[in-house]
Amino acid sequence: MTFLVGRLLTYAITATAGSGFLLFGYDQGVMSSLLTGDAFVAIFPEIDTTKSGHGSSSLQGTVVAIYEIGCFLGAILSLFFGERLGRRKCILAGCAILSIGAALQASAYSIPHLIVGRIIAGVGNGLNTSTIPVWHSELSKAASRGKGLAIELAINIFGVMLSYWVDYGMSYVKNEAQFRFPLALQILFAILTFFGVLCLPESPRWLIKHGHESKARQIIWSLQHNAREIEVDDPVVNVDVTEITRAVEEEEEASSGGSFRLLFQNNKQRFLYRTLLGMGGQLMQQISGINLITYYATVIFEQSVGMSHHTALLLAGFNGIAYFFSSLVPIWTIERLGRRKLMMFAVIGQGCCMAILAGTVWDGGRAAGLVATVMLFLFNFFFGVGLLAIPWLLPAEYSPLAIRTRSAAMATATNWICTFLVVEITPVSIANIGYKTYIYFAIFNFCFLPLIFFFYPETRNLTLEQIDRLFTGEKVQLHWDSSMGIAGDVDTRVGNATTKDLENVQAQHIE
């Protein structure tokens, strides 16, 4: 895509990555309101858990949650084949597979048919969610990497919100299109992502690792904001290429060939520690209870709060809007306040919301129901600010290039298996222990606070190569120290330096 360089190329990459995550968000939210729709329960009475139905809540949980098993399998495929295929090919394959799964779901007339479609769609989404954050991070500048991922995840929540309103609008349709159209609409976003990635570059870090330095140099040049004003062999480009090449050499030396066993070894670059941090962030995100709300918002409004189906659909739609606006906050705060502060802010707020939600659902009164509704909205606010984008960003930031694809795949697999657990048990839990469901989610959130405080380094404004240095000393550094040098990209570090200054920086890295 040689005609698109500089900021326009950066915007195109962010928009395409966002389209992939819009697809992810849409698919997460679309089943929420369909589960209680008239046309859906008429075709699938086995999972009709409304007051007039006699379906199984455990089977309903399985039908919804089996999608996560597909996503888990997709992440495992990325673990084994992602590094070999490259970032772009993985995303392209994910979009194609997801489209097949969406078509199967939209045409389903039986539970087994629906389940197969959800598994296949999940495999595609697992490939996408394992790869898109890595691809996006490796094509981003240090100063804008967090902001770019925050935009990507905000678009993800726009997808959730869009699914709620599509479901609400289609609820007035009294035939099978009521649920078939929302399920088929996923294919549109898959096509947009597919053709976007097809026209955009591969990760320069992946290219250098696999011996394609000239292609990587061209891409690094095209990503510079002043690309039209400089040459491909400009000192700024040379320094970036040198830094990445040096990082690759150091990691390959530490990795002795890049075996899968490296993920579980704590060598001098602490591969295991860094992999566990990425997996831990995804675990926190999912067992915080967010998908209790995302997948079952309408069910909670009807069964826990006692609203009518129409009111529940409407409130789920407004909840999606509030969720989307809260997801915009990190775009302006993630590079100012950093990852750690936002995560700690989120888990404290989420824990309080779940605790209050438990009390209001236990009370069961009308006033308590209103408070419960507010808590559901507030929970999404706290989550959107602190735990929405960051757990997707950290695996790509914390992991060194030698294991980045595999480590990110492990983190994504953790996300999906935890999501499966939450989505599988939620209908059964609400049906059997009611308000106590929210108590254990409150406890989980409060337990996350010390983990974040003591173990998660701050990566704000650091290049991916500088983040490596936080993990390679005598002990893990939770913050960048001025004694380690000036943080940021080459152009940020040298400011208005002359060409000679840049050449000196490059020489220092070569030595």
From TrEMBL:
Pfam family, one: Sugar_tr
Organism, as annotated: Penicillium arizonense
One Gene Ontology term of the molecular function aspect: carbohydrate:proton symporter activity
Protein name from the UniProt record: Major facilitator superfamily (MFS) profile domain-containing protein
Keyword Hydrolase recorded: no
Key words of the record: Membrane, Transmembrane, Transmembrane helix, Transport
Any one Gene Ontology cellular component term annotated for this protein: membrane
Subcellular location field: Membrane
InterPro entries in UniProt: MFS_dom, MFS_sugar_transport-like, MFS_Sugar_Transporters, MFS_trans_sf, Sugar/inositol_transpt
Main location: membrane
Listed transmembrane segments: 7-26, 59-81, 90-109, 115-136, 148-166, 181-200, 271-297, 309-330, 342-362, 368-396, 408-431, 437-456
Span of domain Major facilitator superfamily (MFS) profile: 13-460
Similarity comment: family membership: Belongs to the major facilitator superfamily. Sugar transporter (TC 2.A.1.1) family.
Domain of life: Eukaryota
Gene3D superfamilies on file: MFS general substrate transporter like domains
Membrane topology: Multi-pass membrane protein
